Amino acid sequence: MLKTINTDKFEFLDDKGSFKIGRAEDTSYLYFPIAGEKGLKSSVTPNLGGDAMVNQETFLLEPVSVENLHNNKNGRNFWLYMDNGSVWSAVGTSAEQESKKFTMEQDESLVSAGFMWHTATRANSSFGVLAEITSFVPVDFNVEVMSVTIKNIDHQTKVITPIAAIPIFGRSADNLRDHRNVTSMLHRISTIEDGVTVKPTMSFDEKGHRLNNKTYFVIGYDENGNKPESFFPTVESFIGEGGSFSKPRSVYRQEAGCSAGENFAGLEAVGGLKFAKATLKPKEEIVYTVLIGVAEDEAEFEAAKKKLASKDDVEKSLEATKKYWSDKVNVAFHTGNKEFDEFMAWVAFQPFLRRVYGCSFLPYHDYGRGGRGWRDLWQDCLALLFMEPDDVRKMLVANFGGVRMDGTNATIIGDGLGNFIADRNGIARVWMDHAYWPLKTLLLYIHQSGDYEILKEKVPYFKDSIVHRGNLIDKKFETEGNHQYSEDGKVYEGSIIEHLLVQNLCAFYEVGEHNTLKLRGADWNDALDMASHNGESVAFSYAYAGNLKDLSILIQEYAMNTGIDTVSIASELNILLDSYVQIYESVTEKTELLNNYCKLVEGDISGKQISIPVSTLVSKLMEMSEWFTEHLNKQEWISGDEGQGWFNSYYDDSCRRVECYDSDDKKTRMMLTGQVFAIMGNVATDEQIEYISKAADRYLYKEEIGGYRLNTDFHELKGDLGRMFGFAYGEKENGAVFSHMAVMYSNALYRRGFAKEGYKALNALSEASMNFNVSHMYPGIPEYFDAKGRGKYPYLTGAASWYLLTMITEVFGVKGEAGNLVLAPALLKEQFDEAGEAKISLNFADKRFDIVYANSSKLQHGTYKIKAASLNDGQLAFDETKVTISRDVIDNLPKHNSIIVTLG
């Protein structure tokens, strides 16, 4: 039995993040992701609820949101009819098991899981049986595998009749509330020798029906290859009149079912597979395999069946799946906290989940129609640069093809490289932060690789009917392939440098009444969406001020490393560079200048380019950055009391400053976002960062729910700023601990040398995540923690990429500088183990490095200095704060290397 298993916290099983927890079903809203690389994406609850789909149009199981997880009973199931006439569900969802929940008669249960595999174990001494169901999706097939082991744990022989039952939805998620009954009429259901198939006649869409070729299937066999004896292929035949999925008549009355070779039309489908009776002696077990999948054609269906044709095949596929995903996470940490190190394995895995799932297709993420957003794409690349670097260059170059000539961009990434969609809902909406992220990701890539040549790459621009930065729709627009054309009829291509200039310059000139950047549809915070006329994002004004400086420095480094002295840009773009400080200070003149530029690029452009001296371009960008920094610092600083202060983050649609200080704390308004980007964009001075930190600790910090909240309670609906103020305070963007911004706050503090303050933010998030009794979530970092500390929207969050980036480049200080490897640790003494060591293993420049920091005296950050450094037992040059290993040296190293840095 399983009574010794911990039920109030998860226990890690290895150094790859695998874990277990008892009676996970007693915690609401839990689900786990399993997916492959071919397209199938599933979620599995402790009771094997959840769903499975390839895309919005191809749901294998019924689409679910989080509230369905405890309400729906039509999940995956595996029933046992006992020789004494009793019935038991191996997933725990029979009516009787539900009624005994939270009593002494409740089943003992255990969930164990790792990257893309999930095992639910359940035992009941009264029935004398134990069931272990392992679920996974093979990497290369759109098949979800259920490997079911039934074991007799009684002292008497058992005779069981197993019945697998998987309801098949077999259509678009839209049909859940749009013509569900009508679309069931399209179903053509067949029983074959090993299962049930469903092939709808067409995909139902009133915009245009399409003939269907996909086949949904549920097939199964036992460990000896024996196929089911009979089938229940429809909901009607399985649950029976008056029955339900928690008490199906076919199981309880042991109905015969139908044989192979029968066909049914126009009904809801179930993969109901009834196997032959099995006799199990004490301690004897039998294994059944159930395959749930979707195939584009007969060949794909047969290939999947052949690949998983036996128990041994399934076991090999499971091990291959585990290895595939485990190998992906090639970053490992060793600190003084083993649980934290295992937590980091999950944080490192989350960017892969975002690559697979996008921002949809998990129960909390029940919005959108698939694909990743523009911002998500660039931020996920931050982590993938460390773990999947081989294809990143190609990906980065292709991604710039989503930029429009007016500095806006497509917001949804289609399938394959370089495929973009204007918006998932076809709305001409502009997120004013979007131009900020590409430069940040590109800088990391260039410093990791030393590849300044990427800036020369020529890339097309995205073009559609949305023009003038989303302010106008060109109804005459007609083109093929969504590319910007020049007047000679050719697709126009500009360098990546040019794309970066287009994005950041256009943003600089699009200002509101206070000469800070217009908020438009929203910035990173989608819920600030009701201030499109007069709202201003001061938060991202700080960010772009920093970007302009970074871009100036990058172009200078580019020239030094490649020998160029001029940069070619589209002639139209020069209008945004041929300006001066007096124009920067005038909202009217800046707006007019941007409008003139937008008119020039509204349709086909000239295709002509001009050359600008590097020195001129570098000086101009730095001039813009310095002017903007001074303007923001002078205008937006808010002074509090007791050495506290912070920066304003927004103006609302009524042109009012959003944040303020009041001697009555309840009337004080503070937001975290502005502080993050003022620090990260180098607008805040070191003295101001100290003031900000004190204010954030006073007004925003709540350790027990994860640390730094996004904002104080405004006690106002604020319909002139965004829907977030309609949310309950402490939920999502309105005052929750939003992991993404809390991690970026930490990152910004570390970058500016405030390691202790940065650690406080990181540590609060990890402690809250791993406190299962409060967070009620599996390992990893959620999108946010609610007012009670529950982790919400797990797995698919950009916070994971930023957390991993911060741990690698700031905490452990392992970073690239123009292709060289630099080690500059900012570890606090509590992050070292008992022996005074902290270790990170990762890849850099196609080489593997195990890097150990030895701090035997347990000195605190700020007091220790680098005393010695060695590479593969050979001494390294160093200074007191960092070790630099040149790219030339790295290129000549063996595949696996050891670095020891002694601190003292």
Automatic annotation (TrEMBL):
Keyword Protein transport belongs to the record: no
InterPro entries per UniProt: 6-hairpin_glycosidase_sf, 6hp_glycosidase-like_sf, Gal_mutarotase_sf_dom, GH65_N, GH94_catalytic, GH94_Enzymes, Glyco_hydrolase_94_b-supersand
Record domain Glycosyl hydrolase 94 catalytic: where: 324-463, 620-812
Gene3D superfamilies given in the database record: 1.50.10.10, Glycoside hydrolase, family 65, N-terminal domain
Keywords annotated in UniProt: Glycosyltransferase, Transferase
Residue span, Glycosyl hydrolase 94 supersandwich domain: 56-308
Bilayer-spanning residue ranges: none
Superkingdom to which the source organism belongs: Bacteria
Protein name per Swiss-Prot or TrEMBL: Glycosyltransferase family 36
Species classification: Bacteria, Bacillati, Bacillota, Clostridia, Lachnospirales
